[in-house]
Design goal:
This protein is an alpha/beta fold. Helices cover about 55% and strands about 15% of the residues. It is built from 16 helices and ten strands. A ten-stranded mixed β-sheet has the order 1-2-10-9-8-7-6-3-4-5. The two termini are about 35 Å apart. The structure holds NADPH dihydro-nicotinamide-adenine-dinucleotide phosphate and magnesium ion.
Length: about 325
């Protein structure tokens, strides 16, 4: 039954009423990473789900082959009781203006898997629209795979607007239907989810980790060491360490490494992430809170992604990728 983890409300399947969604017409917009997972899991939980995509969409055929009725976005929104927007964040505001808002039924439920557009005011739903979020804390393929295995990825859920008075029940039913109630559905709000999600991926998970690995690789190679050794030590082995932390926290990881590695861990960690790095992280957080990052990202999109494309080109050309490509050929078992 519902519980509490460090002050956060947690709900499980037994606390959720799937009947809040059964019989409702559900439209999932997008059939990508999250879209296919939400749609298939909900369908197998007994829900009436159709898919909305833009004309000419690459995912159209795949969704049809999975047994869904697929319609163009505006047509898929018409008559739907619940509309979950699972298209890229930067496309959502214009899609909302053009195809969703004009077709959205009065009193419908509008749902998101990330609070970005609501929190930064890029989408402003009408007063009669119920708004909630169910954000699985994992990529779509994991949401799907764990569901098929009988478990599920924990989800965050939040209610932003509740004119009908039962949006929480509908949100919990959604989270349970995609498998979240098998591990835990944790309560949050749009601000918390959006700002911590962006901060985590930028400062730590994607930005921080990649910069750390690449810089370590460069230091060794520039000092004359073999790029093969540099790659193994600074990039390849990251997964082995992360797996241990994932499994049992820092303590499990530190128990598994040598005393030499653990001693170096304590002595060197604060040297590479000194107080100034923490200051830089605070700056990153401020840009997220102010909406500066959101606007930077959206203007790059509006201009045709000049920055994003240039960064992709530069990253692909870095020596670390070439070395990694060669070394992975020695380990074909890595793929699948
Ligand atoms: P993807 O890029 O994987 O999928 C996008 C899907 O939307 C594709 O099927 C694409 O089809 C379709 N699409 C694109 N533009 C339109 C449009 N204008 N109208 C209709 N369909 C369109 O997205 P994600 O699943 O990564 O992200 C979706 C949401 O989920 C985002 O809000 C994201 O922040 C959130 N989220 C993502 C997570 C993840 O692991 N990826 C984790 C948690 C939340 P096509 O391009 O073929 O036309
Ligand atoms: Mg994220």
């Amino acid at each position: 039954m519902a519980g509490n983890i460090l002050g956060t409300q947690v709900f499980y399947d037994a606390d959720c009423n799937l009947q809040a969604l059964v019989g409702k017409k559900i439209t999932v917009l997008g059939y990508g990473s999250q879209g296919h997972a939400h749609a298939l899991n909900l369908k197998e939980s007994g829900m009436d789900v159709q898919i909305g995509l833009r004309e000419g969409s690459k995912s159209w055929k795949e969704a049809e082959e999975a047994g869904f009725v697929v319609k163009e976005t505006g047509d898929a929104v018409k008559g739907a009781d619940v509309v979950m927007i699972l298209i890229p964040d930067e496309l959502q505001a214009e899609t909302y203006e053009k195809s969703i808002a004009p077709n959205l039924k009065k009193g419908a439920y509008l749902a998101f898997a990330h609070g970005f557009n609501i929190h930064f005011g890029k989408i402003k739903p009408a007063a009669d629209v119920n708004v909630f979020m169910v954000a699985p804390k994992g990529p779509g393929h994991l949401v799907r795979r764990t569901f098929q295995e009988g478990s599920g990825v924990p989800c965050l859920y939040a209610v932003y607007a509740d004119p009908s008075g039962d949006t929480k029940e509908v949100a919990l039913a959604w989270a349970s239907g995609v498998g979240g109630g098998r591990s835990g559905i944790l309560e949050t709000d749009f601000r918390q989810e959006t700002e911590t999600d962006l901060f985590g991926e930028q400062a730590v998970l994607c930005g921080g980790v990649c910069a750390l690995m690449q810089t370590g690789f460069e230091v060794l190679v520039e000092a004359g060491y073999n790029p093969v050794n540099a790659y193994f030590e600074c990039v390849h082995e990251m997964k082995l360490i992360i797996d241990l932390i994932y499994e049992g926290g820092f303590e499990t990881m530190r128990k598994s490494i040598s005393n030499t590695a653990e001693f170096g861990d304590y002595i060197t960690g604060p040297k590479v992430i000194p107080a100034s790095a923490k200051e830089a992280m605070r700056g990153v957080l401020k840009d997220i809170q102010d909406g500066k990052f959101a606007d930077q990202f959206l203007s790059d999109y509006a201009a045709g992604y000049p920055y994003l494309n240039e960064q992709r080109k530069q990253s692909a050309a870095h020596q670390v990728e070439e070395v990694g490509g060669e070394l992975r050929k020695l380990m074909p078992w890595i793929k699948k």
